Structure formats: C-alpha cells, structure tokens
Amino acid sequence: MKKILLALALGAALPALAQEPAQAQAQAQTQAPSAAAFTIAPELREPQLSPDGKQLAALVRQNGKQAVVLRDLAVQPPQYRPVFTTQDAELSLRSLRWLDGERLLLGVRDGRPMRRSDLSQDALMVIWPAKGESINLYSGAGAAVRWNNQRAGLVDSAHTDANFVLLMGADPRLKGHEWGVYRIDTRNAQRTRVAAGVYGAMRYWADAQGQVRMLLRRDGERMQLLHRSDSANAWQPLREWPAHQQTPWFALGFGEQAHEFYVRRADQVLRLDLRQAPDQAGEPVAQNPALLNVQSLLRAPDGARVLGASAPGLSYYWDAGAAAQAKGLAERLQGQTVELQQWLGSHYLAASSREDSPTRYWLGQPEAKRFELLAEGRPGLRDLPQIERERLNPAGAGPLLLRRLKGSAPAPLIWCMDCTLEDSDSGDTAFNPLMAFLVSRGFAVATPQAANSGSAWARGLLPWADGQIPRVLAALKALRQHPWVLDQAPVLIGRELGAYLALRLAPALTDQGGVKAVVAIGVMTDLTAQLARLDDARFTDATRDRFRKLLGNSDAADLRAGSPIHHTAQMPARLLIVHGERNGNVEPNQAKALAEALRTAGRQPQLLLLPGANHDISDGPERRHVLEAIENLIKP
C-alpha cells in the first residue's frame, strides 16, 4: 500500500460543492448537455451524518484525487472543509463511517490488482478530523485481512460501532486464504475471525449484538439465503432459488430481536422467526404495491420502528411489533429510487435518484414528512430533460423497458445490453450516465429486463447466447412497430457479455434490415484464445475459475464458431470497439485482433483503447472519450 498523506486543502474547485441548488443559476437548457457534463467532478459520495446530527462527512473527487470533507450543517451557506486526501490517483476512498463523534472509519483501495489473487491491496483506517491524525487498522500489503468489494461489500454501516467493525475477506495467514467475516477492534487493530464457511457469499448480516447470523451465497447455479443459530460454523438454508432467475426473496435485515429477520416477497414484507422451521411462510408486517422493489430497511434507535424504501419513490415505516399498513413519508420523491442510509433518532439520511435525476442526498424527518436537500452528487446535471418509460412484454421476447425523452417524436432505436460503464447494483430506475446520455441525444433506448448476462456465468456462454438471440430478434421486430420508435435499423450497444451478444446478433439481423452500428465495450472476441490464455499471470484465480465455467463446457469447434473474430465479413460498417488496457477479465489484444481482422475484411472499425481503464470505465476523461466516440458513431 502506498503511503497516504493528509492534505490541508483541496484547491479552488471545492467551493462549487457549497452551492445550494436553489442558489445556483437556473438557466433553461437549449440543447443536450455535453458528454463532459456526464463525467463532471467533483462527485459527492457516501455522505454520513455524525452521531449528534451536526456534521456531514462525505467523499469527493477532484483532479483525479479523492478526499474526505466535512460540513457543519448549522453554517450557511454550506462550506465543505477537506480533512483527508490521497496523493496518488491510483488510490480510491470508500466505506466512510462515523465511529463516534470524533472518529471516522475509512477504507482505501489501491486500484492496481495483485497478481494471482482476487484481492486488491487495501487499508482500513481511522481518522480524527479535529486532530488531523490517522492510524491504519490494517494494510492489505502485509499479513492481514483483505476484502473484495464485488463479493463482500466492504464494511456495512449496520456492522459498525465505536469499538469494532465487521468485514468479509480472506486472511493470507490461513491455509487456502480461507474466507470469513472478521471483527477488527478500532482501538488496538486486533482482529478475530467470527464466521467461517462463507466463500461465495455476496452479502452477510449481523444481529444487534454483532453476531453474524445470515448469509446470501451463490452456490453454482443456486442462490441460497443461509442462517446459523449459534456461534458454530454450520449454515442452514432458509431459502433457495435458481441463480439465473429473478430473485423471489429479497433479504432486508434483522429486527430488534436476534431471532427476527425481515424479507420481501413481491409486495409483501415478511418477518421470519429464526427459531422456527426453515420452511416457515413468515408473518406479513406490511403489504403495499409500492413495496414491490423495497431493497433496504433501517431499524429506529429505540427498536420500535423499521423504515424501508421503495423504487417507486416513497419511503415507508411500519411498527416492528405488530402488522401495520405501510405509511408514505416522502411524496416529493415519487418516481425515484430511494436508498436509506442512516437513521438517527428523529431524522434519517436518504439518497434518491432517477434516470434523469442524478443522486441527491436528503435529510428526512419521518413524523414531520419533511425533507431537506443536503447535497447533489452531480450538480452539473440537475437540469436533464425528463425521461419517460414504458414496460413491454412482446411475444417470444420477454419483458423489456423502453425509454425516450418525454413527449418527443418517434426516434431511432438503441438496443442496450448490460448498458452501464461500470459494475453497479443500481436498479433500472437509478441514474445511469450512459443511459441518460443516449436518451438525451434523442434516441429511444430499450433494455431487456430478464435473463441478463449474469445467467451466462451459470449456464455457459454459448448456451446462454443461443437462447438470447431469438428473444432479442423478437424484441427488435416488435419495437420497430412501437409508436415511440422509427422503423429503421437499430444501434446495438453492449458491455462485456452484452457486447459479445451484440456482435453475435449483428449477422442474425440481416433479415430485419441489418443494424446501423454496434458499440462493443470490453468484448471477448476469440473464445478459444480466451480459454487458452487463462494461465497468464494477468488473470486472477477467481477470473480463471469464472471463465473456465463460462467456456470450458464447449468443444473447440463450437468455441471457434461462436467467436466474433471469425465472422468479420458479416459485421456492420459502423463498429466501435472500446477496451481498457488494464482489463483484468479480457486482454486488450482481443480488441486489437478484432480490429485488425475487420480491416483485413475491408471494414473500417474504430478502436478506442483506454490506458487507465480496467473492465469498468469510471467517471472522468476516459468516460468522456467513450461517450464522445459513441455520439460520433451513431449520429445521423
């Protein structure tokens, strides 16, 4: 881990964070925002209220560096004071939490992956903003616990207090780097493994006493919600379902008692009694159509109430002790995705977003039905045109979502698969820079809502793609008859496996008039070469395992037949290939080889290599280059 230095200032750009939206210049936009506006910095992230509710801590990005800033909520106009910053652009900050009124917990990640490991080099720190001091609880460069953000989720606010934190990771001191949940004392950095047998876990929950009791794990083609009743490492399945299907059970969290656990099924929130049989139906505590997509809950400090949030945009609470009808709290956020982050006595912190409304952070008071806008994550995009959406389910295609600018004329169609530029768990109503950018350019954008590329890792790439192609063909045929869409060849855009499917689809669309253009981001073009190169040191152990499951069940002839690089004569004339040169999943040579093969076949593809990008493309100049290249490719 590189040395991390305290900074005294962030520079002249910080005052932009202090502008209240109401005080900013309100100018009506006469044209779509530039590509640069969709990568605007600084972006405020992970705001956290201090225990006394008087200060707001947050992460910001500025000039390629990241920092922790503090705001005194009693001071107007708002001012953000830097208390910690990195001096290395490769380092990123995350998992900001208040431990008490004087100390902040902070995770620091080195973006350069370690060889032959699925774990990056990380540090977990405690900082004293008032003193300008910090200590390392551990550094991943030494013999210490390391975490993996994609699998483990770092440190959850429900699992921290003033004296310890819980996190999931692997300890290289143990044989086989066995995964577990570790308890780290914030006073002396002592660490103890408190739960084992958690490899493959995607999320875990601890009860009010800090005991890890629940686990969400992927086991091959199954998803499992597991429970253990005591400190033993024996996990008992509570619910199971196929991994490639939409989740029927959404785990929310523990109630006031250690035996109470909340789950959601459809529009019902159910309370499970963990002392009863695993196959219990559960006790309904709230039912409302607006709870259909609730994904989080917070327990009130007095334990009397539980607060949840729903994708349609209303926040709810219900009594934890008795069944009660959900009650709306935040009507002004209707239509937005709401994520609840903290609950401190009479108020709580929430984040809201919508496809045409980037993240905003609110201070809410449930009883008063009052919300105060604290900050905006992307103040430069507050005036995006409104996006309207329609859910469709054409015969043979499965459910899909169609978007356009509200009230606009019929528009050219873009079919987007895995349509993000980064790994994200955001729902389809949350702000997506690429989606908002495409719609702002006057396109109708459609995305599939079922059987996405996540199921390919369980079923195998070729069986998954063979099953998806007829579904997409049926969807595109139906969409060209939709009143929002012009009856003309569509644009196909995909990332990773979605990009692979786009290249496979292009030849299959010949009978429907072909495609206008294809954008392939981080695409795998030669399946045989990908499988043969997995022993290269650039790949992590976990990446090798995943790709061998993805490709290893197909024979050599099928891998060749399924490789886009061998079908260049059928590729469209307009083709943009985007690849990060630090991609840890697919080598840049795959993109270069496809571009060369296309030129040999008489095509003129555009190849955009991004020196600093991995398999995702974070905010900043690289994302701007991608958006500008897409716009140049697909414009009339």
TrEMBL record:
UniProt domain Peptidase S9 prolyl oligopeptidase catalytic: residue ranges: 434-630
Keyword Transmembrane helix (UniProt): no
GO molecular function: carboxylic ester hydrolase activity; serine-type peptidase activity
Keywords: Hydrolase, Signal
Cleaved signal peptide residues: 1-18
Alphabetical list of Pfam families matching this protein: Peptidase_S9
GO annotation, biological process: proteolysis
InterPro entries according to UniProt: AB_hydrolase_fold (IPR029058), FrsA_esterase (IPR050261), Peptidase_S9_cat (IPR001375), Quino_amine_DH_bsu (IPR011044)
Highest taxon in the source lineage: Bacteria
Protein name as annotated: Dienelactone hydrolase
Species in which this protein is naturally found: Inhella inkyongensis
